[in-house]
Structures are given as C-alpha cells and as structure tokens.
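One record is set out below.
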Amino acid sequence: MPARNPTGFDVGQFKAAASPSSVWAKRDPWARNETWRYTGPFSRFNRFKGLFPGFGIATVAFTAYCAYEHFFMKDDHHHGDSHHGEAHH
C-alpha cells in the first residue's frame, strides 16, 4: 500500500478537477460572469476593428489621388524625347 500524503492533497483528484472534461469545468459558477468578455462589443473582431482608425478613408483617398494623377495630370517634362539632350552641347 502506497504511503498516504500527510497534507491530504490528492494529485489524482486535482488532475480530475482541472481537466476540461470534468464535471466542475462544465458547471463553472463564474462562466456566466466571464462571457461578457468575449461577446458583443468585446468580441475579437470588435476589439481589433478600431485598431487603425482612419486607415480605410486614407486608403480610398490615396487611391483616388493616384487615379486622378494618372489620368488627368499632364506630364510637361517629356522624359522620353530624344531632342531634349541636343540643346545642351
């Protein structure tokens, strides 16, 4: 017969109570009080939704500016012309 622990602490009972499939884990008295942390405005999506405020508006504005510059701004420099270098002898 194994020696009994003088403190009365039973490791087997502790492991059974700490396992996720234990009866105590299913009837957690604090579970109802903890659910607010992970639902509604505190869900994972809602917590990270406001991480970069204004990023969506800035992306749309930058894209619109690039499109405007590409289609409507005239390039007055004519970088590809061959006669550009002839005047600089």
